[in-house]
Amino acid sequence: MKLTVLLAALAFIACARHPAPEAPRPSILLVTLDTTRADAVRPNIAPNFNAIAKRGLRFTQAYTPVPQTLAAHCSMMTGLYPAGHGVHENGRYLSDRVPLLAEKLKGGGYRTAAFVSAFALARRFGLGRGFDVYDEDFGSDRAERTAKETTDRVLAYLGRPSPQPLFLWVHYYDPHFPYTPPPPFHGYLGEVSFMDQQLGRLVSAFHGAVIIVGDHGEGLGEHGEAQHGDLLYQATMHVPLAIIGPGITPNVTDAPVSTRRVFHTILDWVGLDATHSLRRPEQEVVVGEAMKPFLDYGWQPQVMALEGRLKTISAGKIEVYDVIADPAETHDLSARASLSRPVRAAIQQYPIPSFAPPPTDEESRKQLASLGYVSATTKPIVRKDAPRPADMEHLFPLLDEAAHLFVAERYREVIPLLERILKEDPQNLDSALRLATAYSSLGRDREAVAAFERAQAIDPNSEDVRTYLGLHLAHGKDWQKAIPLLERVVADDPERLPAVEGLATIRERQGRIEDAIRLRQQIYRQRAPTSGELVQLGRMAMAVGQTAAAIDAFEKAHDDHDLELGVLYLAAGRLQEARDALDRVLPSSPDYAMALFKRAQVSVLLHEPDAVAHIDAARQHADATTRELIATERLFR
Ligand SMILES: [Zn+2]
């Protein structure tokens, strides 16, 4: 039997190392157009795209492997389907182990620069590796910027000449909801037109090969989907794609292709590997997925496979559409059409994600929510009675609104929405858990416990239920019940930070400071601590005599902690450092008396000639505490 598309995709990495650079290699520009439907780039809406595409090869049947920003870009930057790179949703991290296009190009002697226009693609999510420049400055309190702002910055960068060839990735975000282009433009298509103006500016300032591609489309109400990510119909999966560069003769092709092959095409131009380059025609079954409803609500996983003009969707049942004759996908041909063997294999062997990677930190989650992305907090479970996402479209607006209210901590408002969702979809674990958390946050204890029990009934083994029930109990100071729940979660999954933080707080309140310190250190290995948290950790470590840990914490804290550091350096026998730190304590500081006392001790120990003067100064400025210390200090006799 023919090897499945997917296995082939997973194997690509292995054959990507044959450096045979020839003649001068071109600079390469990759432009990714966020949320841009294939049918949105028509000539009157996107004249620049059309003019540029005429110079190269335009694909009328290009498909994203996944209708979400981060996951789609991960596929273009790795050449892999989501099952290969592991990112199915926004707000997840791309593993460091997956090689990236920019790393390969940089290794091949390219300068590399990326300019992204939305937080969904911020460096922290893993796509920054291999880029010399990764420009993600959206201005303070903003999670996105316009194509004009991004283009201005790119053009400034292009003004700096270099003998090296350049790999430049520019991401535009304008057509994403909300649709608010500057005048005279209006609505979604107006956003596309505005972006197209900037595309024209950008491409005319660049000399080299160019790829322009959509990351995914936009539902605009088709099949009940307003935006993207929940379904895999043409509105969101079918995207624009044009390539202009070496070995390309101007043409238009209707061969179905996956946008993940952007990766292979660029490696081909660079001379690293020609496998799967879009420069050569290649028959393939193009596959795609939309796992968000599965990962977030436990609904049917959705997979598509496209061969020729027939698209097969598997999501609880099989649908087949002729996407050329029926691009709106209104006539299901599954009763008449029989699936080819490669299509059947692609669908049956498509790997369904069996676990959710740890969710991103709270700050990232809020920023993503401000862009309209909210991902689940629970692990997916495969439900026997899982509904088809396409049958649940009437719930999408409700789910989206509930997710936003929840992230915004508007618990009172979110409760009735969650109750309505659970009425229609009683097995929805994420909603049950959010309902319990909302009641808990409002201090409505009895209702919270009832909701947690409901969540536990949906999935008795859920680590999330254990975590949030544990936190709820801890909040009510029911430590006896909370501790075993949280301890179990921390033992099973040390990366589940809310549980580790909950347990750390309990240990601190119980006075089990060593345990609290160990847990805090575990947390800060996974996320950066705030300055306040470092001070707190430093004080705890100081209190139990963990000098080295305390020094480490205070040194990393941003504000001045010169008294603490002076005392700690002295305790560690690091006298010069103790002297310097104590000398930095200002007379205006409330700790000045103590600093002078400690400084006098250091002075004696260092045998400084003016030690007596330091002792006098300490006496002169002594307060109630230090007066007694000075009187009994043997070093001063
Ligand atoms: Zn996107």
Please give a handful of descriptors for the protein shown.
27 helices; binds zinc ion; 637 residues; alpha/beta; 9-stranded mixed sheet; 13 strands; disordered N terminus; 4-stranded antiparallel sheet
Question: What report would you give on this structure?
Answer:
Helix content is 44%, strand content 11%. With 637 residues, the protein is α/β, with parallel strands linked by helices. The strands form two sheets. Strands 1, 2, 3, 4, 5, 6, 7, 8 and 9 form a nine-stranded mixed beta sheet that branches. It has a four-stranded antiparallel beta sheet with strand order 10-11-12-13. It is globular, with a radius of gyration of 30 Å. Mean pLDDT is 90; it is low at 1-17. Residues 34-35, 69, 215-216 line the site of zinc ion.
Provide the structure class: alpha/beta
Can you summarize the main beta sheet?
9 strands, mixed
Q: Compute the number of strand runs.
A: 13
**If you average the pLDDT, what whole number results?**
90
Distance between the termini: 92 Å
Helix-residue proportion: 40-55%
Poorly predicted regions are: 1-17
Shape: globular
Helix count equals 27
Bound compounds, each kind once, are:
zinc ion
Radius of gyration: 30 Å
Q: DSSP strand (E) fraction? A: 5-15%
